[in-house]
Write a sequence for this structure.
């Protein structure tokens, strides 16, 4: 039974919750963080790429002891059909810098480290505790939480909802609507273990250098989706995700897609001989700017995936989570410093600060992308990938056909598949949504 | 035949994972129904842990022991009241070693 009343209760010990709890605890606020898993990270799933800049703003010297896998020097974007991939890739020695920009991480390990920092900053972290309910006062302000542990409610001035994409509390309490099937993706992933020298050989890496492959195309069977392969130190994280609405429509099984990706001729040799040690599944918010729910209210704020803060175009989520958690913490510190109550009017400061950050600016930039890609998934994930493969193969295969005829055949294939007007319209709509 | 092979493959995958099952307290329940809706039926294919299966009467049943708590079924079938979804009690359910 916890008698103490806290300045803040943070629900969840993922990226956003840890960032919020750490930020507040460091400034001397009394913080209780509740996590339903056995240990922080035990319920968390991510690819995972961690962006240094956003963590540096919270823990500047994180490189001293954070469990980092590899810093990324190479990124490959692939468009796949069933037998090929057409790709662009970028690799630069500039990424071998004193303070690298992006790292692969393993979330269960990283989150334990982050949680240790939260505790060192002075917060109380309670695991194996599921928050079941929000407690409100007569005016409707959130004043605490109930948990599945024995004892009564636990009280705080403000509750930070960092409960993740599948957050029950916020939706049950009516603070935000249930996720729509078309604004959330289901991703499945496996951890493939290989000796580090094998990984380095296969991807042309030295030391802690890392490589990322992101692939779209027929692999998602006309659904809006993306597959990925990330190199860790002694393992490869590999997975595929598609919109839940598309899964429901096509009734494709995610594990069948995953196995097809693993068996694709471009992927199979990269993971040959590996030992699989875990299979995981997780939802990813994909609705972008237009899906952002109410972020604050009387006695509460929502951060990270619970607030659907995810940039699907750049595949960034954990950095938006960390930043929103940090900013929520800073807003709460500011309000407390002014001796003001944690009511809706004052907590609006969190939204104001978040709007000025890259989080909301980036999401606003791509506000029309989800609708475009999600409603035209067959074109973008089936037709164009096939056309691109045909065009590339046509260009490379030497078979005595005059080049002018080859070019005509490629152009004709595009027009036949999408029509002149369809091609122009796709380009224009894509350009407008990207702008 | 294909279905049996697929089923085997998922169970092999889930076998890698660590779970602490809370006996007698499943965290997902399917409400009694005559005929499943399209979304509920879809779960028998798209649940990544294959927790949903059709019984002989054409109704959907769930065994949530292998559940990875992703929430896909919640997104599709909670609002209609066809399933009831709660988190497992603190410490129970899937425990990711790597995540």
């Amino acid at each position: 039974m916890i008698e103490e009343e806290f300045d803040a209760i943070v629900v969840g010990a993922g990226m956003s919750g840890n960032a919020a709890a750490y930020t507040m605890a460091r400034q001397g606020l009394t913080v209780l963080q509740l996590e339903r898993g056995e240990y922080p990270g035990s319920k968390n799933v991510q690819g995972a790429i961690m962006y240094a800049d956003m963590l540096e703003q919270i823990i500047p010297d994180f490189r001293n002891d954070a469990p980092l896998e590899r810093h990324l020097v190479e990124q490959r974007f692939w468009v796949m059909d069933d037998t090929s991939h057409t790709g662009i890739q970028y690799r630069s020695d500039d990424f071998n810098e004193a303070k690298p920009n992006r790292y692969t991480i393993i979330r269960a390990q990283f989150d334990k480290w982050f949680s240790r920092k939260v505790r060192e900053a002075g917060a109380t972290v309670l695991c194996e505790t599921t928050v079941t309910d929000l407690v409100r006062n007569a005016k409707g302000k959130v004043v605490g939480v109930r948990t599945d542990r024995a004892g009564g409610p636990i009280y705080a001035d403000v509750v930070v909802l960092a409960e993740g994409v599948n957050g029950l509390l916020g939706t049950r309490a009516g603070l935000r609507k249930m996720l729509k099937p078309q604004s959330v993706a289901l991703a499945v992933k496996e951890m493939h273990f290989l000796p580090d020298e094998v990984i380095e050989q296969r991807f042309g890496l030295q030391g802690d250098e890392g490589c990322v492959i992101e692939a779209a195309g027929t692999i998602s069977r006309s659904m809006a989706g993306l597959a990925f392969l990330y190199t860790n130190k002694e393992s490869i994280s590999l997975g595929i995700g598609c919109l839940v609405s598309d899964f429901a429509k096509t009734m494709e099984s995610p594990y069948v897609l995953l196995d097809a990706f693993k068996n694709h001729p471009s992927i199979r040799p990269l993971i040959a001989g590996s030992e699989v040690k875990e299979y995981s599944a997780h939802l990813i918010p994909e609705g972008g700017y237009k899906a952002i729910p109410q972020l604050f209210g009387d006695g509460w704020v929502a951060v990270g995936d619970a607030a659907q803060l995810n940039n699907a175009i750049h595949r960034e989520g954990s950095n938006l989570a960390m930043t929103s958690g940090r900013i929520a913490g800073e807003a709460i510190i500011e309000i407390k410093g002014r001796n003001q109550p944690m009511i809706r009017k004052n907590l609006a400061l969190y939204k104001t600060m978040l709007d000025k950050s890259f989080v909301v600016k980036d999401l606003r930039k791509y506000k029309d992308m989800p609708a475009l890609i999600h409603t035209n998934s067959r074109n973008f994930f089936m037709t164009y990938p096939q056309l691109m493969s045909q065009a590339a193969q046509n260009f490379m295969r030497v078979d005595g056909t005059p080049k002018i005829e080859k070019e005509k055949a490629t152009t004709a294939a595009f027009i036949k598949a999408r029509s002149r007007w369809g091609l122009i319209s796709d380009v224009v709509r894509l350009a407008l949504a990207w702008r | 035949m294909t279905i049996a092979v697929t089923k085997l493959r998922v169970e092999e995958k889930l076998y890698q994972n660590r779970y602490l099952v809370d006996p007698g307290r499943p965290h997902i329940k399917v409400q009694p129904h005559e005929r499943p809706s399209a979304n509920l039926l879809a779960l028998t294919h798209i649940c990544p842990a294959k927790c949903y299966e059709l019984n002989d009467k054409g109704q959907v049943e769930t065994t949530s022991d292998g559940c990875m708590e992703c929430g896909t079924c919640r997104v599709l079938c909670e609002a209609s009241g066809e399933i009831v979804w709660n988190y497992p009690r603190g410490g129970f359910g899937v425990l990711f070693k790597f995540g």
